[in-house]
Each structure stands twice: as structure tokens, then as C-alpha cells.
Design a protein that fits this description.
Elements: H1 3-15, E1 24-29, E2 32-37, H2 44-49, E3 58-62, E4 65-68, H3 69-85, E5 94-98, H4 103-114, E6 118-121, H5 128-138, E7 142-146, H6 147-153, E8 163-167, E9 178-179, H7 180-183, E10 201-207, E11 215-220, H8 221-240, H9 243-252, E12 257-260, H10 267-280, E13 283-286, H11 292-302, E14 306-308, H12 311-318, H13 325-328, E15 334-336, H14 344-353, E16 360-363, E17 373-376, H15 378-382, E18 389-390, E19 394-399, E20 412-418, E21 424-425, H16 429-435, E22 436-437, E23 440-450, E24 453-459, E25 463-466, E26 469-472, H17 473-480, E27 486-496, E28 500-509, H18 521-529, E29 540-543, H19 558-565
Parallel strand pairs: 3-13, 5-6, 5-7, 7-8, 8-9, 12-13, 12-14, 14-15, 28-29
Antiparallel strand pairs: 1-2, 3-4, 10-11, 11-21, 16-17, 17-18, 19-20, 20-23, 22-23, 23-24, 25-26, 27-28
Helix pairs in contact: 1-8, 3-4, 8-10
Length: about 575
């Protein structure tokens, strides 16, 4: 055992011991005894309300505006009352949120939680059918939309039997739509009274997974609060194991400030940035849309100390000609690498040229509230190829295809169990049963354990990771097969120097297709673009005459297609 591994093990024992800030306790869920942080908040409203003490301190910077904690809470309280009294939202009702990253997104999320309802953030990149489909899944009592999402829905929001709050535009006269500005005028002190428990639903967050239809992950108040506590645990572990780096950063005397570029409907944006910054009184800088040059300018302007992004974002920002390591060292205290997908050369370059920093990496998923493993600071410098050490509140198994537990060092499917794990896929018991077995979540990811470090090396799921966006191959295949001129379609990931992975497809025309229905690559890309978000549109489509190759069980041999059409080209 090397020095850093010994240090991390000792700190874990110290931080989680009886009487320590991250003391562990046993808790029973579903007849199973699991480990939890004793001092974590019990519910989301309790977690949120603790941040009221930050008052007039700056919280969110966005397009020239500064939103203080007090302003955010004042508008959130007012909106929470309005949801209850004007839109009829009751405790446990779902409220869908579909907006780009902006301060009002944070206000909307807090308001829904403070009203005792269940926030359901939707993919803001989604087009008409995707937004309607997500709403049909969660059955919202109300929708909170910005102007662009409202326009995408057209008049079909009326079919949802839900109240609508419109942000950033005037409500159409006589439509019954509520204008945001009318609902966020404070009329009384504090939020409405609510009574929710740790095991009640707290959040519905969509994940692509490997099915044709995105699934809504149901997270309890307990799981969500434990997740935020775990982020604080990671911070404490990293700081205490990197005293030299922390001493250097403290000399700068800069307020912790994170540039938020990942969408807030992602667990990495909501949990690790918005909620974590809220409860710790830290600052956030929001961007309207990703642009590496603008991101660099914002880092300089706001003296940003932390940048977390998808692998492609990290690549684009550090390789941009405006990114000056010498200048960035004055403020930037760390880069979060956003999981697997970055070339090791780039990680090594950042660790070498950024100087003392708390840069790091982690592994988690929506189904585990983002909790699994993480590492930063000196620990990450020592093991830059790993995905971190395990959280104290997560159990892990590595299994083979026959469900046998494998020893350390052998690669297999990663399975996780613990209090942060989801309760279910909302309204989808079959999908739930397929991934949750005796409380163990089948992640579909391949990895191995070595000396207490987790290494994630591959994916079992048919999911394409394009710039941090997880794209279901089955969803794109299903879309392609809506084309009358196609008989078969296979969608698979191919390497991409900019986005890490790109979407590719191999299709087979239908035998009876008429000449005007004969598919072309250009036509098929346009067909998908009309139905799915732009990042899901295949960058390459191969039209082949022969049926797709299959194994005896009828499964398409995608590896054969990759070798035939995309490798070495």
C-alpha cells in the first residue's frame, strides 16, 4: 500500500468514526440494513432551508446580473405559494421544469421542493415529441417553461391537463398560462408549510439508459440528502489528503466559484453544482450555451475557481488558443474531468501545467444520485487513471455474466447498492426489475477494483457518450425505423476527436420502398433532426443493400458493422 492510499484509508476511518462530521449509522430500507451518514439532512426542504443564512451573499451570476441567496429564496418562496394556491399543486404532485440554465431554473426547482411537490427536470434539448413524451411519463400537475420550450410544445401543452408557468415571455392573452413575473412577487414571509418524510419521493430525473424511451428515475429525500452529504465528504477527504495544495489555494483568498456549463437537468449539474453550492454558500456562474471562448472569458471575469464539464468540454477549453495556463493558475483551483472519455495525455497535461489544484474525477449515475466513487487533489495525481475510491455509503460488486462476484483486479459489470440508489423507474416496473436485484443496481458499466480504487473501462449498455450527453442507440434506431423506406437500422458509437464519441448508423432499405422513399444519408439525417434533439442525429449513416449481420439469437453484430464501415476510415 503506497502512502496516498494509506492516507486516504486513515482519513476515511477518521471522518466516519462516531462523533465525526461524517459519522456512519445503520438504516433499514426494504428489509435491508444499509449505511448512511448520521448527520445528513432528512428531507430536501430541510436541506434547502439551511442555506437561507447566506442572505445577501452573491449566489448566481448570469449575463450581467447577480442573484443573491436572498433574492433566489424570495422568488422561490413566492412561487411555492403560487404553485399551491393558483395552480393547485399538492404535496407529492409532480412539476415538470423545462428551461435552459438560468437563475429562474434554480428558483423553479427550489419552489417545487419547498411546496412539497416533486421536481421533474426535463431535457431542455428535447424537441416537441420528446418533451411531450417526458411529460406523459411523469404526469405533471404543472409545467414551468421558458419561452423556447413553450414554443416547441406549440399548443399541445393543453393536452397535458397541467397548469403552465411561462418564464421569459408574456403569457398569451386568454390562454390561462401564468406569467412568471406575476407569480414571483413576494407576498408573505417564507415558504408554505409542508410535511414530507425521508422515504417520500423527492425527485424525478430522466436518464437515457439503453432503452428506446428515456426513463424517469425516482429518488427519495433520503437518497438525495445523502448524496449532497457525500459531496461534502469527498471535499473533506480531498482537502485533508492534500494539505499543501489547500495551503496554496487559501493564500489566494478567492471565494469558491464554479462555472456551470453542464445542464441542470443532469445529476452532475443539479447535485454536484446547484445544490452543493447552495448548501455551502458558494457562487455559480451560468452560461446560456457552451462556447469555450466565452467560458474562458467568464473564468477570468468572475475569477472562477472550479470548472467541471463533460470530457469534450474539458478538451475544448484547455486546447483553445485563449486558454493560458499561466493566467488560469491565478484563479482556477481545479478541473473536474466529468467521468471517463478523456485521453490520458490531456489529464497529464492539466495536472502538470495547471500547478497545485484540486482537479479530479468521479463515477456515478442518475440511478445512484451521482454517488459511487471520486477522487481529487493528491489522490488523483497519484492515480490519474482511476475513477476514485468508493463512497462510504455505497457497496460495490464486480460480477461476471453468470452473476458471480469477481475478485479484485478482474473486470466485470459494476453493481452498486446503498441509500443513494433509486427506488424505481417511474411507471416502469419491468425496467426496474431488470436493473434492481436484491437492492443491487446493475450499472451496465464494466470495471474492476484495485487497492480500493475503482477503474471504469467500458460499457455494456448500448449508450453513446457524446460530449457528456448519454444517447440511447435504441432511441435513435427507433426513430430511424419510423422512416417508411427503411427495413433495418443499427446505431453505434464511433470515436470522435471533438466529442469523444459520435453517433453512427447502418441502415437497410425496405424492399418495397418507392423511388421517392429511397433513403439517402442526407435525407435520413434530416428525418432524425425533425424528431430528436440535434446531438442525437447521426454524424454518419451508411446505407447498405444486404441485411444486417446477426448472431444465431438474432442480435445484430454491431462490432462487425463497426469494423466494416468505421474503423480505419
Amino acid at each position: 500500500m503506497d502512502d496516498i492510499t494509506r492516507t486516504l484509508a486513515g482519513l476515511r476511518e477518521k471522518l466516519t468514526a462516531p462523533g465525526a462530521p461524517f459519522e456512519l449509522t445503520a438504516i433499514e430500507i426494504g428489509g435491508r440494513e444499509l449505511v448512511a451518514y448520521r448527520h445528513a439532512k432528512a428531507t430536501l426542504p430541510e436541506l434547502i432551508n439551511g442555506a437561507r443564512t447566506f442572505g445577501d451573499d452573491p449566489f448566481i451570476f448570469h449575463e450581467g446580473e447577480t442573484w443573491s441567496f436572498a433574492r433566489v429564496f424570495a422568488e422561490a418562496d413566492a412561487l411555492a405559494w403560487a404553485l399551491r394556491e393558483k395552480l393547485g399543486v399538492g404535496q407529492g404532485d409532480r412539476v415538470a421544469i423545462a428551461m435552459r440554465n438560468r437563475p429562474e431554473w434554480a428558483v423553479a426547482f427550489l419552489a417545487v421542493a419547498l411546496a412539497g411537490a416533486v421536481p421533474a427536470p426535463l431535457n431542455s434539448f428535447g424537441l416537441h415529441d420528446e418533451l411531450l413524451g417526458a411529460c406523459a411519463t411523469v404526469g405533471p400537475r404543472a409545467l414551468i417553461l421558458d419561452a423556447e420550450r413553450f414554443e416547441r410544445l406549440g399548443g399541445d401543452w393543453k393536452s397535458l391537463d397541467a397548469g403552465v408557468v411561462l418564464c421569459g415571455a408574456a403569457a398569451p392573452p386568454g390562454s390561462g398560462v401564468h406569467a412568471w413575473t406575476d407569480l414571483v412577487k413576494p407576498a408573505r414571509e417564507g415558504p408554505p408549510p409542508v410535511k414530507v418524510g425521508p422515504h417520500d419521493p423527492a425527485l424525478l430525473m430522466f436518464t437515457s439508459g439503453a432503452s428506446a424511451k428515456p426513463k424517469a428515475v425516482l429518488t427519495t429525500h433520503l437518497a438525495l440528502c445523502q448524496s449532497i452529504m457525500n459531496i461534502n465528504y469527498i471535499g473533506a477527504m480531498s482537502a485533508m489528503s492534500s494539505p499543501g495544495i489547500i495551503e496554496e489555494l487559501m493564500r489566494r483568498a478567492l471565494p469558491p466559484t464554479t462555472l456551470t456549463v453542464v445542464p441542470l437537468f443532469h445529476v452532475s449539474g443539479l447535485h454536484a453544482q446547484l445544490l452543493s453550492s447552495l448548501v455551502n454558500g458558494r457562487r455559480l456562474v451560468f452560461m446560456r450555451r457552451w462556447d469555450p471562448a466565452e467560458a474562458i472569458a467568464l473564468i477570468r471575469k468572475h475569477r472562477v475557481t472550479q470548472f467541471n464539464g463533460a470530457p469534450t468540454m474539458v478538451m475544448q477549453i484547455v486546447e483553445h488558443p485563449d486558454f493560458d495556463y499561466d493566467a488560469m493558475r491565478a484563479t482556477l483551483a481545479g478541473i473536474g474531468f466529468g467521468g471517463a472519455g478523456l485521453p490520458q495525455r490531456l489529464i497529464d497535461e492539466v495536472l502538470d501545467r495547471l500547478g497545485p489544484s484540486m482537479s479530479g474525477i468521479g463515477f456515478g449515475m442518475t440511478e445512484t444520485s451521482g454517488v459511487a466513487s471520486a477522487i481529487s487533489g493528491e489522490g488523483f495525481r497519484a492515480r490519474p487513471g482511476c475513477s476514485g475510491t468508493l463512497s462510504p455509503i455505497i457497496q460495490l460488486r464486480i460480477t461476471d455474466p453468470d452473476d458471480r462476484v469477481l475478485p479484485d483486479g478482474e473486470a466485470g459489470e459494476i453493481r452498486l447498492r446503498g441509500v443513494p440508489v433509486m427506488r424505481e423507474y417511474w411507471g416502469d416496473p419491468e425496467a426496474t426489475a431488470a436493473v434492481l436485484q436484491d437492492g443491487w443496481l446493475r450499472t451496465g458499466d464494466v470495471g474492476y477494483l484495485e487497492d480500493g480504487y475503482l477503474y471504469v473501462i467500458d460499457r455494456l449498455k448500448s449508450v453513446i457518450n457524446r460530449a457528456g450527453e448519454k444517447i440511447s442507440a435504441a432511441e435513435v434506431e427507433s426513430c430511424l425505423l419510423q422512416h417508411k423506406g427503411l427495413a433495418e437500422a443499427a446505431v453505434l458509437p464511433i470515436p470522435d476527436p471533438v466529442h469523444g464519441e459520435a453517433v453512427a448508423a447502418v441502415v437497410v432499405p425496405a424492399g418495397g420502398a418507392s423511388p421517392h422513399e429511397a433513403p439517402t444519408e442526407t435525407g435520413l439525417r434530416a428525418f432524425v433532426a425533425e424528431r430528436l434533439a440535434s446531438y442525437k442525429v447521426p454524424s454518419r449513416i451508411v446505407v447498405r443493400a444486404e441485411p444486417l449481420p446477426k448472431n444465431p439469437a438474432g442480435k445484430v453484430l454491431k462490432a462487425d458493422l463497426r469494423r466494416a464501415y468505421f474503423e480505419g476510415r
